[in-house]
Design brief:
Layout: H1 2-16, E1 28-35, E2 38-50, E3 54-60, E4 65-68
Antiparallel strand pairs: 1-2, 2-3, 2-4
Length: 70
């Protein structure tokens, strides 16, 4: 339980120290999602295709983290 609390505190510190940018300046995103008792953390690079129709995609660049939070 102590390890989980330390991890949660570390994640909280990440969010409180984030420098927010406008959508035009974004190059990477970090995604957090919970599935059952596992917290998944993914790091993506935003891929933009500036043709006639603007397309946006994501490419996973790591690290990939899965934490058991039971």
């Amino acid at each position: 339980k102590n390890i989980n609390n330390n991890i949660i505190n570390d994640i909280n510190n990440i969010f409180t120290n984030v420098e927010y940018k406008t959508s035009d300046e974004l190059q990477r995103i970090i995604l957090f999602y919970k599935n059952n008792n596992i917290l998944h953390i993914r790091h993506y690079k935003i891929i933009k295709d500036n043709t006639d129709v603007v397309r946006v995609g994501l490419k996973e660049i790591g690290p990939r983290i899965d934490l058991n939070i039971d």
